[in-house]
Write a structure and sequence with these properties.
It contains 7 helices and 2 strands; from the N terminus they run E-H-E-H-H-H-H-H-H. It is mainly α and 152 residues long. A two-stranded parallel ribbon has the order 1-2. Strand 1, helix 1 and strand 2 form a beta-alpha-beta unit. It is rod-shaped.
């Protein structure tokens, strides 16, 4: 086995035992393919982000140093909050509330940026500008209470 490469399918104890056995025989490279990522992707596509996160957590118990699973866990944790962040954007009425909601969403979804999401953020920025312009026009049309003179 010296100088050979092995592709191992599995994620459980048997895969780990097989990997140790082959590595002990001089194997040069070992690639382990697990199905946690594939299962998690299917769950996300079905709208079950919590289920996908559970699958990834299960995978990290078996492969605690797997960088791909760790990154996916971070993305899924952000996605759990996506509905709330987008709902906050939709319910904001003033330009300042809209800006705060957009800032929270862009920060909270930083590792889950898609072209569709970027386009939504771009459209939302335009809505903020339009709302701010209406607020400014309303403030000019209806001046507020005059400032009180400074007290002495």
């Amino acid at each position: 086995m010296s100088g050979k490469t092995l592709l191992l399918f599995g994620a459980g104890q048997m895969a780990e035992l097989a990997a140790r056995n082959f590595l002990g025989k001089g194997l040069t490279r070992l690639y382990i393919v697990n199905r946690h990522i594939e299962r998690a992707q299917k769950l996300v596509n079905a709208g079950d982000v919590s289920g996908a996160l559970a699958v990834v957590e299960e995978g990290l118990k078996v492969y605690p140093l797997n960088r791909t699973l760790s990154q996916l866990r971070g993305q899924l944790r952000q996605l759990r909050h996506a509905k709330m962040l987008i709902a906050n954007m939709r319910s904001a009425k003033s330009s300042s509330a809209m800006t705060a909601a957009l800032t929270a969403a862009t920060t909270g979804l930083s590792s889950n940026r898609t072209e569709k999401l970027e386009n939504y953020f771009k459209m939302y920025r335009q809505r903020i500008a339009e709302t701010a312009a209406r607020e400014q026009a309303a403030a000019v049309a209806e001046p507020g209470v005059p400032a009180r003179p400074a007290e002495r």
